[in-house]
Amino acid sequence: MPKNLFKIIATAVIVKNNKFLIAKRSEKEERFPGLWTVPGGKMDTGDYTKGKKDTAHYWYNALETTLKREITEEVGMKIKNIRYVTSLADNPKGKDPSIVLSLMADWTSGKGKISNEIIEFSWVDLKEAKKYKLIEGIYEELEQADKLLKGERTVWKKKK
């Protein structure tokens, strides 16, 4: 029986002054062109193998390293205090399945930049986020992040 090889993707709900960063995907993107999302990207083995192992066998904080690299590449910002929000799985037809870890992080620096993948970005609160055409599920992730900031813990739940 063949193994399912998953891509691992990390995304970040970035928080700055009680607002969240959302980014508009390029119309040229294969998936979700022109929709708004939170930044992130695929884990690459180079994210950890280029560095020294933390123990005899392992590299620690590999996901965090990936996320920091992706945020710098995509939107030109630096982040810290990375924490878990939720996870999801995807199995698009004809493509490798993926596991997405949705994380939250605090903005530390960077004014933002436009890239090939991201053509616009905005800092929004929950009320403002409703005005944007977000990828399905992203608004609920923002709600979860907002609750985490208030010390509450919830699980992702689709709005009816």
Quick summary:
The protein is an alpha+beta fold and 160 residues long.
Mean pLDDT: 92
Low-confidence stretches: none
**Total number of helices:** 4
Q: Structural class of the secondary elements?
A: alpha+beta
Radius of gyration: 16 Å
CATH architecture: Alpha-Beta Complex
**Overall geometry:** globular
Order of helices and strands: EEEEHHEEEHH
CATH topology: Nucleoside Triphosphate Pyrophosphohydrolase
- The CATH class designation is Alpha Beta
N-to-C span: 39 Å
Q: How many beta-strand segments?
A: 7
Assembly classification: single chain
Q: Indicate the proportion of strand residues.
A: 25-35%
Helix content: 10-25%
Task: Tell me the domain tally.
Answer: 1
Sheet with the most strands, sense and barrel status: 7 strands, mixed
Instruction: Give the full name of the CATH homologous superfamily.
Output: Nucleoside Triphosphate Pyrophosphohydrolase
List the helices and strands and how they pair.
Elements (H helix, E strand, L loop, with lengths): L6 E10 L2 E7 L10 E2 L2 E3 L3 H4 L12 H14 L2 E13 L7 E12 L8 E7 L1 H4 L8 H12 L11
Parallel strand pairs: 1-6
Antiparallel strand pairs: 1-2, 1-4, 2-3, 2-7, 5-6
Provide structural commentary.
The structure is a single chain. This protein is an alpha+beta fold. It has a single domain (7-149), classed as Nucleoside Triphosphate Pyrophosphohydrolase (Alpha-Beta Complex). Helices cover 21% and strands 34% of the residues. The protein has helices spanning 46-49, 62-75, 126-129, 138-149, and strands spanning 7-16, 19-25, 36-37, 40-42, 78-90, 98-109, 118-124. Strands 1, 2, 3, 4, 5, 6 and 7 form a 7-stranded mixed sheet that branches. A hairpin with a 2-residue loop joins strand 1 and strand 2 (19-25). It is globular, with a radius of gyration of 16 Å. The mean pLDDT is 92.
